[in-house]
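User: I'm writing a short methods note and want a consistent example. For Heme-binding domain-containing protein, I'll paste the sequence; you return only the structure tokens, no commentary, since I'll be parsing the reply automatically.
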Amino acid sequence: MKKSFLLPTLAILGLLFIQGTSKTDAVSEYELHALAPDMPANVKAVVEQKCYGCHNAESKNEKGKAKLDWDAFEATKKSKQLATMAKINETLSKGEMPPAKFLENKPEGKLSESDLATLMEWSAGKKKSKE
Ligand code: HEC
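Assistant:
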């Protein structure tokens, strides 16, 4: 009798475990929505992965934070956002971000071609919303 309980219980525990581990994705997506509700999801995903770490209100990267703070970006007026987007566009078109020095130690931080295209298109003001 007891043995017949064991297998289903283990199966359920296994499923719960799998669910638990996949939840991390959902959490970061939620944080992103809080970060910038107006930004298309595909743009947010790239920013979160490749830019946010240095450019946020709590960043230890003082220079990066001073130049661009995504937390503040969200709260600023549209006109200021547009100016920041233009700056981002210019910076990216020169291939300056993420910084080359940082990429030496963390090559996986590099923007893929599609990441770059996503950010370039968005920062140029052509919002291709993919919510
Ligand atoms: C490893 C940390 C780091 C990452 C990752 C990073 N940045 Fe930066 N960013 C910096 C620093 C540091 C500066 C200041 C550079 C300076 O003043 O010389 C900066 C400056 C900038 C500036 C201002 C440039 C200017 O001339 O005013 C923009 C725009 C920018 N970053 C955009 C981005 C974008 C977009 C991403 C993601 C693709 C990104 N950054 C990823 C550290 C980072």
